[in-house]
Write the structure tokens for this entry.
Amino acid sequence: MKHYVRSYWTKYKQLYKKGLKGLAAFLAIGAIIVFVLATIASRGMGVIFNEVMAHQTMMRGTVTVESLTATPWGTLSFTDLVWKDPEGRELLTVPDGKIRVNMWDIITRNFKASAINGIELNDATIVVDLDDNNRLDFVPASPDVNKPLNEVEPRPKPPKKTTQERQEELGKKVRNFNWDGQHLNLTITLRNNQLEIFQKNRHYVMKNVNSKIHLDSSRAIRIDMETGKFGGTAIGDGLTLKGRIDLKDVLKHRMPQLDLQFDVKGVDPSSLGFGDNIHDAMTLLTKVTGDFNRPLAKGRVTMPILRIPALTFENVVGDVTYQDGILNFENVNANVYGGKLEAKGIYNLDTRAYTITGIAKDLDSSEALKTPEFVVPVSANLNFKSEGQPRDMEVWGNFWSGEGHYMLIPIKNITGNFHNKGRHLSFSDVKVNTKVTTISTNALRIDNGQLTMGPLNITSHGGSNFILYDESFDEIDENMDRIKEGMKQAGENSKRASESAKGIDSIKVPDDVKESVGDVKRQMDEVKDAFKGIKIK
């Protein structure tokens, strides 16, 4: 029995070894056959490529390449790929790139979209058009792709038809790219591309676009993209887009769902219509969710510095949301001249109109005016508004202060209103209250750096009052020292006279009081003499 088992095991091992050798030989022969077929197929790839391009239905028009080489492992390298529509307009130009395919599909001549595993485009110019539902199509490039980014047209030419007419024709539109529900499972790699985007009445040109996009049309799109500088509807230093787009049930008319991190760096406020000469960089860091055709973005807005006429804000930070072309800013805080700003506002990306309101508290007047002699804590209500043109930005509000001083003169408070448009800053209903006088005016303007004053009312708490008017800042400057000294002395003498004059009806006026009254008169005459060069109204 033992001998029988040993004999059986020996025969089994021999058969097993022969079987393994046979299987190995079969696999080797199969691999060689596949390699030979793949090599033959790769050598005829030019013919195969032309045949595939002639029968494909996804890309309208013709696709040609200058040269094409292939490896047996399914990598096709090409140069000068050009896609043209039937009218001969270029839709895509690629100096060089690669296409990775499943060689078994090529050998078996199974020319379907699913045969493509990867596409790599280098230094290409890609132009996409997103319709009102954000459906993608490829269109010819505009002349703006060859212009400097600051000269790119912010908005494309308006459509000849109304939005409603465009909506009615969406289903009838002849598209250059038609997915038609074909299964796609591939990785798209972009290296140093240029991207032009049209969306509604928005227009962008982006440089140095680098991305890796994995597309599985039955599941999701995973995207990791970063760009260089961009221009058009907005000008900025670059953007990044990372995350996932869920495509589940998209063929059942369910909108793709977004889960993306979208950051925009170094946006130029003037390019958005925030003033005519405001170029301090703004950064938006947002999380994008919702339907593909109606995304919702929430995040933060930051600016290291924001300089507008008469105000400089530092460390600007706030909350921002975006949907349907509207940016909504909330809880915006900033430092301004030693004080704090709290603000909120709404911006329309399409019309560029915006309104912003805020309150600034405890601003240091000496820092704001660069005058160390003038120190009062100032607070203000601020309003910013524009209808969409940079030059029509208006800033207005009112201000008030606490106690402080100008040189050695104590100030109880300052109140007033202001209005700024362009380079024209005006103040109204301004009142400066001290312990002895109230200085008020309804007309004070700074136009292109030139001061113009209206009636200036100076009222002493002792009862004297006079009105001054001046059209020239230089004339005020020439007399300012004498005015300061005269007003100071007049105030002191007025106080002495007031104290000495108590009971003047029942008590004989002393000679020194008479001299004080005379001093007051003389000092007031000196002040008036100091203002002779100023027009009195």
